[in-house]
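Entry 14. Ran structure prediction on the chain below.
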Amino acid sequence: RNAGGEAQATFATGPHLASPQAFRSGNGHRPMVKNAAFAAKPLAFHEDAQVEGARLELLKKEDPIALQDAVNTSKALVEAVKAGSLEELQDVVANALEGEFLQVFVMQAMVLALKGASLELVKALQGFGAPLAHEQLAESLHLVCEITTRENFSDAWRILQLLVDGDGQFKVDINQPRSIDGWTPLCVACSDACLPLAFKLLEFDADPNIITRGNDTPLSLVKRRRDTDNEEQKEARDIISSMLRSYGGQERWQDALTQSRRPAARRKPKGEEQVATAEDGAKSVQQAVSATHTRFSA
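Output, structure tokens:
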């Protein structure tokens, strides 16, 4: 694939590469039946990128109608996610045939669902086999943390939990460093002074003593105030700082390194007053909340 995500011509051959005729029925270019793997996980990548590229190149030469079907079906998948329509997404998947979901479009659909903080769409895509462990989704947790707001927090943290828990085969590491700066999702939450998000990430066992490429720690990042901070964020920075320390977090990278080498498990925060559980099971952070409402409903 090129930098724009378009499939380029490759000329791989061998037993893993099906010819265009293998996808045809007796009356046309559409396959007669779906194999078991595709039926179970239609969005899973059943071939690697090189094999897919070679298959598309053959279709371009020998069966352009089948190629156009694949492109149209893949685009329909993306459009369903853009529209935020679970029903439309399910219809597209139900009517698709093997080989019609192109990898670049599947990845685009997942990223759009994550950026939209759409829990139901992320769940559906995961259930259909969209590959959580793909390298292009390595920073999916960071993406969700970056778009978390008071309004979407309830869905956002559940998406994080979905990615961290995985699908039984693949899962995303809660401490995955971002390639550009070594930040983990907790670093993002701390830098943005998002108290409920920081709380949830620590609850998911995020490392409070991660060291970034710039030798920052979550504690040093949260203590770095911004001119753009609102009153809620100003107050949250102090609360998050205390919370990180209760988990053993250190401000200096040297101290964080020493702490992380200790065999003892990280301390959990003291007291049960930090979380309130409603009758429906919803939780909310209860740490030193004042009139600026440094709390989101979960």
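Confidence is low (pLDDT under 50) at residues 1-29, 270-274, 285-295. Will compare against last week's run tomorrow.
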